[in-house]
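Async update (no meeting this week)

Hi team, since we skipped the sync, here's where things stand on the single-chain job. The sequence we agreed to prioritize is pasted below, unchanged from the tracker. I ran it this morning and attached the output directly underneath so nobody has to dig for it. Comments welcome in thread, and please keep replies under the output.
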Amino acid sequence: MTPAPVRNQALDAYRGFVMLLMMAEVLSLSQVAKAYPESWFWQTLGYHQSHVAWEGCSLHDLIQPSFSFLVGVALPYSLAGRMAQGASAGALFGHACWRALVLVALGIFLRSTHREQTNFTFEDTLTQIGLGYPFLFLLGRRPPRWQWMALGAILAGYWLVWALYPVAPELGFGGHWMKADNYGAAFDRWFLNLFPRATPFEGNRGGYLTLSFIPTLGTMILGLVAGRWLREAAPALPLRRFLQAGAAGVAAGLLLHVAGVCPIVKRIWTPAWTLFSGGLCFLLLAGFSWVIDGKGYRRWAFPLVVIGMNSMAAYLIAHLWEEFVIASFSIHLGAQFFEFAGAGLAPFWRGAAVLAVFYWVLLWMYRRKLFLKV
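Output:
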């Protein structure tokens, strides 16, 4: 029987860092930046807590690819753990399909809060991961060459379909990757209107797409490769491989972007974005692994581990509790309580208090070994 894997603290810390970035949206740094337009400090923080308008990348744009990447990294550990418990291949695949279904349902549920009826949309982080997870599981049980072949087929095939989609000639080749008139948007105008809706679906305001789950699967495959490297090298660290893969991914994405082959656009998850963001994920994983496992500096990462070990709880808390906590502060402390440092900084201090509540709940769960799993 295969021994159960030891939990990787660097992965928990990286995951916690990603979830912290997501929960920290309550700090409203972009709103504070508007109140201080001459401040380089607040402008920088505001930029990196916002998604870029279209092409390019901010720190905030790395949340979803990192979360997806880490799903892939965790799969070899999860498979090893379940196989050590004697689970059959059929049971493992059944669990993968069930997990995928729950993730899709949760994503739709969260997108439907404060709506008059179910909002059937599939661009949410959870639904995107859920749609690709069964395929990731199947690849996780195949030899490495299958994973690389699948990644190549996904990136090349996805690029070709978009490149062949007809657009107005005056837009040039770059027109294939514009927000409203692209293959993915056309697909959603057909697909999403198959579901009951209050009004016909005409397009996503941010440009996000259902079909992005396909290149997102590519990001998860890159994570799967990283997870396999980690387990094969243990107890050593494959830092050179991570750095090489990271540099290659970033360089390839930039090359495709600069050459005009395919732009780096997170909102539609272009192949160039898959490579570029995947490369950055490799570099971030290398950094966390080097500091925590290589150098043994672990104590500083404890708050991140608390969040990372309960990432699903953190995700749900951030999406469901924010308005309740803010309203509670307003009721019991007064509507102007957080203006003690000026109206411009009030959103930041209010958000810091909300974030502290979120963390306290997660710390309470951690100490009682209450971990929400799917």
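Quick observations from my side:
The chain has a mean pLDDT of 94.
The chain has one domain: 9-367.
Reply here if anything looks off.
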